[in-house]
């Protein structure tokens, strides 16, 4: 299949498509277990991690709870979970886009874009929440590369405005929905970089101690799966474009995501941002088998094309990102830097670790440059300003990393040094520099 259609082609000739179609059907016949992988992926949507009911009832019972993005997949699931503990008032704040996710009887639905500072402050000022769950975000990595300004104004500046509105209205707790992609200490990708910057904004707010903060990292959510929807659309005609044949990815359910946010909220603390992730996400899903299972289920003759990696998706992680000594012992959504300071789960279904960035010893964070670039409206300028902030965040994180962890990351990365991209070489140089300084 790779020989018939090398990666990187925007259009494929009719004869090539015919050959790929025949080869795809042969691959379906050769991998009869693909249907089981497709069924397993769907079954993950029913999975939950459970929550401590009594503790949540004591925390949320009688409280005023506000959820940004409460009309989306995870947000609506979270609203339903919170409602079980009888809050005094439960309010969703979103742009009003629902995509058929259910609305909850007895809940309130305010309309505001988190990018609209004035409207957001007005809603928070009227609601005066005790607890804020910040779930609203632009979540599509591929779309982020095409809508740079909208992604950054939502995920970065929008998060900053939610934090300001929460603190301004006297909220006691703020819980932030992050992503497993934020485990990367640096990324040029817009979605990953924007969520990494958002974690820093929330961590900076936590350091001020005006409220108790926590965060939860999610991976691919089955219920609103971008991959599944694309596969279903492609099965009806066209071409299934997969980045590569060997991709594996972790997945979780919207219920697990909502329960993780609740557990994170119980662990919220003043003075630091503790971030939670599910310890055991099960065996990762094979993307090729998922596609073959979808084709088999639909009886479709749509061809598969291994197109190569699109912007917004990384072909190879930084070699020192995971430490084999801790992999399998902690959530795969923690990097080697984070696993070294994680709290042991002690039978709980989650791992927790502090997201930390140095506040001194270097120039001020270039966040104003990001804001100014967004105001200018030029995507290239926004991309460059976010990239400068991303490098600043890498150094701010490395300043607080343990020396033994820095040395370990260098040792894990050096065998691959000749294969590193320019960005990865710069990361390695930064880790070495900080390791020597410490």
Q: Can you give keywords for this protein?
A:
two-stranded parallel sheet; Rossmann fold; 438 residues; alpha/beta
Describe what this molecule looks like in 3D.
Strand 5, helix 8 and strand 6 form a beta-alpha-beta unit. The strands form four sheets. The chain has an eight-stranded mixed sheet, with helices on both faces. Helices cover 45% and strands 13% of the residues. The relative contact order is 0.13. The chain is globular. It has two domains: 361 residues, Rossmann fold (3-Layer(aba) Sandwich); 76 residues, no CATH class. It has 438 residues and is of the alpha/beta class.
What share of the residues lie within helices?
A: 40-55%
What does the largest sheet look like? Answer: 8 strands, mixed
Measured by DSSP, the beta-strand proportion falls in 5-15%
CATH homology-level superfamily of the largest domain:
NAD(P)-binding Rossmann-like Domain
Major sheet strand order: 3-2-1-4-5-6-11-14
CATH architectural arrangement of the largest domain: 3-Layer(aba) Sandwich
SS field, number of helical segments: 16
Average pLDDT number:
94
Structural class determined from secondary elements:
alpha/beta
Cα-atom radius of gyration? 22 Å
Q: Give the termini separation.
A: 50 Å
CATH class descriptor of the largest domain: Alpha Beta
Q: Which H/E pattern describes the elements?
A: HHHEHEEHEHHEHEEHEEEHEEHEHEHHHH
CATH topology of the largest domain: Rossmann fold
Total number of domains: 2
User: How many beta-strand elements?
Assistant: 14
**Large-scale geometry:** globular
Low-confidence stretches: none
